[in-house]
């Protein structure tokens, strides 16, 4: 009987993996292809099995692997918003602007409230040098006199934002446009 219970338990954990192991099954970004699985081995020399991590409560998580946890949480939100069109003043999936997207990402991932505008958001957190960016840092750009743009850094020199030309997307900080318009970055406490 104990072996049967273990078999049923493992089956319940493995079934979702089998049906969603490829990120394309749910039209998710390719960034998810290797996220969220862990290899486990059982005591009885059976083949190793992959199971999904349990979602962490980010508001109380220990900072042991905080950058990876923050990145994963942000990428989960990105999958919900990717492709949403840009709309100045928009706050929904019908159209969203850059600062509203940051509000949604931080509220839905970390239960952290952000102010509504980039002018207010840039006043939050600690200033961070561009060379020391970590996933979850807000990156700000001066796009024209009196206009700012904001995104959230996810690592590998990339950030997620609501682009006026592409909608919600992931871009490289190495792109010439973003390099010339980069203003500053701010680190908010999102873990613990």
- Class based on secondary structure composition and strand pairing: alpha+beta
Instruction: Give unreliable regions as ranges.
Output: 17-64
Give me the Rg, rounded: 19 Å
The average pLDDT is: 79
How far apart, in Å, are the first and last alpha carbons?
A: 41 Å
In terms of DSSP E residues, the strand content is 25-35%
Report on this structure.
The structure is a single chain. Helices cover 30% and strands 25% of the residues. The protein contains 5 helices and 10 strands; from the N terminus they run αββαββααβββββαβ. The longest helix is centred in the N-terminal third of the chain and has 19 residues, at 2-20. Helix 2 (66-81) crosses helix 3. The strands form 3 sheets. The chain has a 6-stranded antiparallel β-sheet with strand order 5-10-6-7-8-9. Mean pLDDT is 79; it is low at 17-64. With 192 residues, the protein is of the alpha+beta class.
Characteristics of this structure?
single chain, 192 residues, alpha+beta, 6-stranded antiparallel β-sheet, two-stranded antiparallel ribbon, 10 strands, 30% helix, globular
Give a brief description.
This protein is α+β, with helices and mostly antiparallel strands and 192 residues long.
Topology:
Layout: H1 2-20, E1 37-40, E2 49-52, H2 66-81, E3 91-92, E4 95-96, H3 98-110, H4 118-121, E5 126-127, E6 138-144, E7 147-155, E8 158-163, E9 167-172, H5 176-181, E10 182-187
Antiparallel strand pairs: 1-2, 3-4, 5-10, 6-7, 6-10, 7-8, 8-9
Helix pairs in contact: 2-3
């Amino acid at each position: 009987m104990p072996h049967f219970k273990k078999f049923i338990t493992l089956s319940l954990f493995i079934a979702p993996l089998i049906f969603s192991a490829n990120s394309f099954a749910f039209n998710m970004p390719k960034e998810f292809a290797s996220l969220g699985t862990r290899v486990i081995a059982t005591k009885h020399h059976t083949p190793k099995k992959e199971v999904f991590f349990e979602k962490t409560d980010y508001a109380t998580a220990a900072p042991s692997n905080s950058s990876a946890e923050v990145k994963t949480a942000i990428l989960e939100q990105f999958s919900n918003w990717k492709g949403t069109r840009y709309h100045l003043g928009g706050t929904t999936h019908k159209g969203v602007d850059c600062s509203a997207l940051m509000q949604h990402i931080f509220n839905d991932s970390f239960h952290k409230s952000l102010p509504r505008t980039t002018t207010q958001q840039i006043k939050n957190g600690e200033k961070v040098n561009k060379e020391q960016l970590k996933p979850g840092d807000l990156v700000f750009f001066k796009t024209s006199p009196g206009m700012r743009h904001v995104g959230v850094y996810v690592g590998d020199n990339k950030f997620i934002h609501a682009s006026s030309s592409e909608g919600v997307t992931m871009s490289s900080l190495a792109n010439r446009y973003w390099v010339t318009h980069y203003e500053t970055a701010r680190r908010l406490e999102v873990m613990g």
